[in-house]
Amino acid sequence: MKEVSEQIKAFRLQQGKTLKKLSEDTGLSVSFLSQVERGESSLAITSLNKIAEALDIHIKTFFEPEHAHDFKIVPSEIVPFKLEKSDQELLRVSSDFENRRLDSYIVKVPPKSQSEPSSHEGEEMYYVIEGEAKFYIDEKEYTLLKGEMIHYPSTYKHYYKNNSQEDLMILCVLTPKLF
After folding, report:
1. DSSP sequence for 1-42
2. pTM
3. Which of 52, 69, 78, 133 could join 59 in a cystine, given CB atoms 3.0 to 4.6 angstroms apart?
4. Are 89 and 167 in contact (CB under 8 A)?
5. Alpha carbons 157 and 63: distance in angstroms, whole number
6. Is the Cβ–Cβ distance between 138 and 117 less than 8 Å?
7. Where is the HTH cro/C1-type domain (predicted)?
8. What are the beta bridge partners of residue 88?
9. What number of H helices and E strands is found in the chain?
10. Cβ–Cβ contacts within 10 Å for residue 161, how many?
11. Tell me: the pLDDT tens digits for 156-165?
12. Are residues 117 and 157 in contact, defined by beta-carbon separation less than 8 angstroms?
């Protein structure tokens, strides 16, 4: 699989778009997009989605599809991935079938790491497998311990943090699907 940064540049050039035009279409700066294409800057999922929309492609185009031949999911058999320059490791634990609306991930969040604040259509549910998580939803703080969960509309501004010295493992189920 080509790096996401190389794919962005290839799609942009195929469409004859300049970095300036991509910047106008996404609201992201030319310098940031240039750094992304060179693999020198971290790319959040929300920014990648803006780029995909501006290039008129689905965000899943940037990732190798993992088609399930049945509905059983064995996490130990799935190859984890990271978004470029991200310190969080994702393991996609969703089956891939037509009209699927949910996306499920096991996310390994290193100590002192956090997700990018966002708000969007849909809903999210998180279950803490290991560790302790702090969730911030519409400026309210929630502490979740192992075995606890949270479920909320994604239209609220939200993000999570791992303030501990240990890895945080969470199961994330969300709509709309990302990939």
Report:
1. ---HHHHHHHHHHHTT--HHHHHHHHS--HHHHHHHHTT-S-
2. 0.63
3. 52
4. no
5. 27
6. no
7. 8-62
8. none
9. 4, 8
10. 17
11. 999 999 999 9
12. yes
* ω into 65 cis (within 30 of 0): no
Q: Which residues, other chains included, contact 169 with Cβ-Cβ below 8 Å and sequence gap of 6+?
A: 106, 107, 108, 109, 128, 129, 130, 131
Nearest to 102 by CA among 123, 77, 116: 123
Question: Cβ neighbours of residue 4 under 8 Å, at least 6 residues apart?
Answer: 43, 48, 62, 63, 83, 84
Mean pLDDT of the chain: 88
Q: How confident is residue 60, by pLDDT bands cut at 50, 70 and 90?
A: confident
Stretch 97-123: mean pLDDT: 90
CA distance 45 to 25: 17
Q: Which pair of tokens denotes residue 161?
A: 């943090």
- What domains lie within the chain, and their CATH numbers? 4-62 (1.10.260.40), 75-175 (2.60.120.10)
Residue 12: CB partners within 8 Å, gap ≥ 6?
19, 22, 37, 55
Q: How far is CA 4 from CA 74, 102, 159, in A?
A: 26, 23, 24
**DSSP bridge partners of 170:** 107, 128
Helices (H), 38-101: 45-54
Question: ∠ at Cα 55 (102, 123), nearest 5°?
Answer: 20
